[in-house]
Amino acid sequence: MGFMDDAKETAETAGRKIQDAWEDTTDKIGDKVDEAKANADVKKAEAERDSVEKRNEIKEKLRDS
Hints:
Blueprint: H1 2-64
Protein name: CsbD family protein
C-alpha cells in the first residue's frame, strides 16, 4: 500500500501545481486585458483633450477676427 499512497500523493501534488500555474496564467492574462483597456481609455481621453483644445483654438481665432 505504501507505493500506492506515494503515487497518489505525487499525483495530488502535481495536480495542485498545475492548478496553481493555471490560476497564475489566468491572472496574468486578466492583468494584461485590464492594462490594454486602461491604455485605450487613456488614448481616448487624450484624443478628446486634443479635440477640445483644437476646438477652443478655433473659437478663439474666430473671436479675434
